[in-house]
Amino acid sequence: MSQLLKVQNFNVSSDGIAAGASEAQSLESPFGLPGAERLFGWAGATASWPNRTEPGGSRGLDDYLTRDFTHNIGAEIMGRNKFGPQRGPWENEDWRGWWGDEPPFRTPVFVMTHHPRPSYTLSDTTFHFVAGDPAEVLDQAREAAQGKDVRLGGGVSTIRQFLAADLIDTLHIAVAPVEYGSGVRLWNSPDDLLDRYHRDVVPSPSGVTHHLFWRK
Amino acid sequence: MSQLLKVQNFNVSSDGIAAGASEAQSLESPFGLPGAERLFGWAGATASWPNRTEPGGSRGLDDYLTRDFTHNIGAEIMGRNKFGPQRGPWENEDWRGWWGDEPPFRTPVFVMTHHPRPSYTLSDTTFHFVAGDPAEVLDQAREAAQGKDVRLGGGVSTIRQFLAADLIDTLHIAVAPVEYGSGVRLWNSPDDLLDRYHRDVVPSPSGVTHHLFWRK
């Protein structure tokens, strides 16, 4: 197992919800959830948050997790719902993702979609649009990663697909103290994964609880 | 503050002791403490431990801390007592440190000593032997680090010197559940640093408690 597939800094509510229903996602509401910043605010408060524009930020536990985001990562795989709110064939190729001219990935990114679209590069990140099942896409990403690990970025249905195919080596899921009641669920309970994974449960002073899983 | 000075993975007992009395240190007992592996065993159990020779190891909380060891580090400063048990002028320059032919630092290392000795390189690590006060040695290390951060490796009296000079930006101290009663102390209590630093206290399932400090 020389090239791991890793989920990093993935945020869910205390009831396991990571996004609103697919139809609630829009350009104005990427997560399709009200107050979604309550899910990922812990990361934005850290010194190493990739989108930080002002100096400062915490350098405690949460910062170890945000600065690990790029550690030995050579490629990312993401589902189409992480890439954007569009569904069906690409109608407007001017839309190039949520992340502006300097996406935080700085590696090849493989967007899973059955609708073809040419690759393009923004700063250090190149987006490729690929069809195929999880194992096939992972093969492509591993090759592009040139010996480094591969990050599985989400969204939640993509992570569930890769869990079902038993392809994920480690997961860091940050559970926030907020309850949504409805939306797209990663799990019914974090204990769902304990048949296949070891786990450390690490409460952070920021209020989130980090669940760190690695294969048995 | 673009180049931090960081203490990382420094281990103390629950009563703050990091090493035996200076005269107890020897080639056979680097820490001069009985059962010193109880202090650093948590790190050796992780997948990212630099000296790991066999596959396996945990990938939970403790592994985040060990794999952060080299993150954006461009140089290390260490006291002579971390480098070796010798005192006074160098009598045997064949002794080249505890770490074998591939020291885990992989950067320039500045060993603080008033006894001159030529620099030498082992694999990716070059050891320099420098006199000067903490601020002067830090200037040299920062220049060698070429924009990256600098690690302060220890031992305990060196860390105390740099704390007294108020030169340290972040500290990760792992407190192990073992009591020594006597030896060289980092602190009377981890609370000693709270006038100058924020702190996260993070208990690990491995039994150690990580104290993560960063400047106020």
UniProtKB/TrEMBL annotation, chains A, B:
Residue ranges annotated for the Bacterial bifunctional deaminase-reductase C-terminal domain, each copy included: 106-187
Classification via SUPFAM superfamilies: Dihydrofolate reductase-like (SSF53597)
Pfam families tied to this protein: RibD_C
InterPro entries, per database record: DHFR-like_dom_sf, RibDG_C, Riboflavin_Biosynth_HTPR
Extent of the signal sequence: none
Protein name as catalogued: Dihydrofolate reductase family protein
